[in-house]
Design a protein that fits this description.
By secondary structure, the chain is mainly alpha-helical. 45% of the residues lie in helices and 5% in strands. The chain contains eight helices and two strands; from the N terminus they run αααββααααα. The chain has a two-stranded antiparallel ribbon. β1 and β2 form a beta hairpin. α6 packs antiparallel against α8. The longest helix is centred in the N-terminal third of the chain and has 17 residues. About 12% of the residues have low confidence.
Length: 148
């Protein structure tokens, strides 16, 4: 392979990596206040980021099977059982594992994301807030709290 071809391949690889690069965690931290109205980030009982009590704990969400967070699934003092739809649990049972990319996609339109993922027009997540901008940055911020 010639040096010119090798340089071209390396250049194109760098460009393609940049185009799929994840968001900016620092920007995501600033935007996270929209999420914290429902979600806290808690590790082993220690509150890392204060938040509401109506959404599941987002600590370690990247790499987690959807609908499997302990409080979400089984209830706790923080989240009463039966508060959530079964559609997120169904999505997890169908193979949905959270990544930075699909967290961003979900955050932009949660209802459409779950309907499409489950191929079920009646499917609904509990979250209905659509993030118009910054979803990639918030997903990158959440990835900094990864237990995996």
């Amino acid at each position: 392979m010639s040096k010119v071809n090798l340089i071209a391949i390396l250049f194109m690889s760098a460009l393609s990596t940049q185009s799929i690069a994840s968001g900016d965690p620092a920007k995501g931290e600033k935007l996270y206040n929209r999420c914290s109205s429902c979600h806290a980030i808690i590790k082993d009982g220690e509150v890392l980021v204060k938040g509401g009590i109506t959404g599941p704990n987002l600590y370690g969400v990247v790499g987690r099977v959807a609908g499997s967070e302990v409080d979400y699934r089984y209830g706790s003092d923080r989240l009463p059982i039966g508060m959530f739809t079964d559609d997120m649990i169904r999505a997890g049972e169908a193979g949905l594992v959270w990544t930075e990319e699909n967290i961003a996609d979900y955050s932009e339109d949660p209802i459409e994301f779950i309907k499409t993922y489950l191929d079920d027009e009646t499917a609904r997540p509990n979250m209905s807030v659509k993030l118009k901008k910054g979803a990639e940055d918030i997903a990158a911020f959440l990835a900094t709290f990864n237990s995996q």
